Amino acid sequence: MRKYIYISVLTFAVIFIVAFSWPLLKENRIIRAIIAFVIQPKPVVVPPPLEMLGQGARFPTAEELEQEKNFNAQQVELAGQWLKSPDVHQRIMGAEQLSAYESPESEQRLTDALRQDAAPEVRIAAAQSLALFKKLSDSTVDALLKALDDADKGTRIATLNTLLTYAFLVSSDTKKSEHLLAKLRKKVRSGHLNKDVRESLQAFIKDQGPPTNAFFSPLPSKTSEINKQP
Q: How many C-beta neighbours within 10 Å does residue 180 have?
């Protein structure tokens, strides 16, 4: 019994000393460093990529891949249903959700929204979502080029940004890049573009280098070439 009394008295004595000396302890740098180390929040450990995990890591099984594929298809279908909603905000959500699932189905639904939706806010969302796609079909590019003539300025600007973003993405592919630039030059030559889009598009084409400068100067006629010969 006497032993427990001694332990209790000792415990209260320690608490009393610490309580009254705490302000002084905090002034000591070593003590403060120890306190900071103990009470500071521990950093969250982010797991490394799969290829860096080494032995024991595994790739998804065929069943897991199939489940992911089915889930993505369901999300695309859900977003497609939202695009049919009479509520504009619901259709915007559908267009934004499709940006997370790059597939032919998503691309087609976004292209249809860009072409057909009556609300400019939805057309803008569709154009912006297509800007996140690394690959676009020719029909989608044609739809974007047509949307440069949209009556809504916001849609025109969003479409232009998407086309320029895609031009940057395919710049390393000479064939695709030249094909896209040819379509952009043809669009500028059509003369139907609004000033806000036309000037930006002309500046972009001019920055692409000598091959695009042919647009800004007429091609020499055969007669002038003959006259230049000695």
A: 21
Q: How deeply is 208 buried, as exposed, middle or buried, from its count of CB atoms within 10 A (0-12, 13-18, 19+)?
A: middle
DSSP 211: G
Q: Rounded to whole angstroms, how far apart are CA atoms 132 and 139?
A: 17
How does pLDDT run across 112-152, given as a tens digit for each residue? 999 999 999 999 999 999 999 999 999 999 999 999 999 99
Count other Cβ atoms within 10 Å, centred on residue 155: 24
- Calpha distance 200→85 (Å, rounded): 35
Report DSSP letters for 74-108, one per residue: HHHHHHHHHTT-S-HHHHHHHHHHHTTS-SHHHHH
The answer to whether the beta carbons of residues 98 and 110 sit under 8 Å apart is yes
Q: What is the enclosing helix (H) or strand (E) of 122?
A: helix 120-130
- Homologous superfamily, domain 70-214: Leucine-rich Repeat Variant (1.25.10.10)
Q: Where are the beta strands (DSSP E) in 39-80?
A: none
pTM: 0.64
